[in-house]
Amino acid sequence: MEKNFALVRDLLYFTQIVANRTFSDAAKQLQTSRSSLSRFIQELEETLGYELISPSSTGIALTDIGQLVYQKFQPFLKQGEEELEDLFTSKQDYRGEVRILAPGTIFNFWNSNKIIEFKKHFPKINLQLEVGTGFNISDSAAYNYDLIFSGELPNSNNFYITKMGIAKSSLYCNQKYVDNFGLPQSIYELQTTHKERVLSIRPNPIIAIHEITKEAHTIISKPSFAAMGFAPAQFIESGIFIYEVVHPKYAVMKDWIPVLPEYYINEFPMYLLHSVHAKSSAVTAVKQFLMKLNFE
Q1: pLDDT tens across 86-113, in order?
Q2: What structural domains and CATH numbers belong to the chain?
Q3: 188 by DSSP, 3-state: which?
Q4: Are strands 96-102 and 125-131 parallel, antiparallel or unpaired?
Q5: pTM to 2 decimal places
Q6: 288 vs 84, 228, 264, 277, 282, CA distance in Å?
Q7: Which terminus of the chain has a lower count of CB atoms within 10 Å, N or C?
Q8: Closest to 157 measured CA to CA, from 182, 139, 178, 144
């Protein structure tokens, strides 16, 4: 069953590549990387025992077998997105353990009603969630985890890569902080009175960018650094820090107070990395579910 699932997945990607005429255009359409698509096609060709695509200066060129495979499978492209999803999910008994590494703020997503929704669809999948940095992903991570949320492209060929969108971070504190130190009402006040109590997720300058005008202000050139892997609640609930939270849409708790909410602090792409060693249909099912997250 696992092999059949992977075969259908790879055939769907193959038809998208042919329909878009180049790997690059297909990768944009599928929101994944060109290298990931190349790996899928290589696996498909190894499974079928035939070369499907030949290099071409004008894009792609199908072999005779490739043309036949495309003609036979192309009608599936006419199905809607929901129907294709049913093709993946409705006829399989998904079970097993899926190991996920993600920044602490992303895991607040699992504390919402979404986890209930997931369990309804996949009651036999056991999720092993671990908090990580989201940056500097090494080759060894591909053996230790099935899926990884990352704020940058890995320097590794051991992952299929899907771009989830653009993540933003904002500053938050709680009522205890406000009672002790007050709530900053301006960029200047944040730069001066509160500067020493602002924690960043990365050792980069903290630059506040206005949501509408895009006007930028450097708040702190060398901020105090708290690893992105730590859950923000550890710092915010202490009542002595203003903390940078990645993607507030999923991360904010009820008692957190936004600091200068008209500004965001950082903006970077968020990727979902799928280890090439994780080939179970349970992993693919979890990946499909996670890809419904909207990071825009």
Answers
A1: 544 454 668 889 999 887 666 655 555 5
A2: 2-92 (1.10.10.10), 167-267 (3.40.190.290)
A3: helix
A4: parallel
A5: 0.61
A6: 11, 25, 29, 17, 10
A7: C
A8: 139
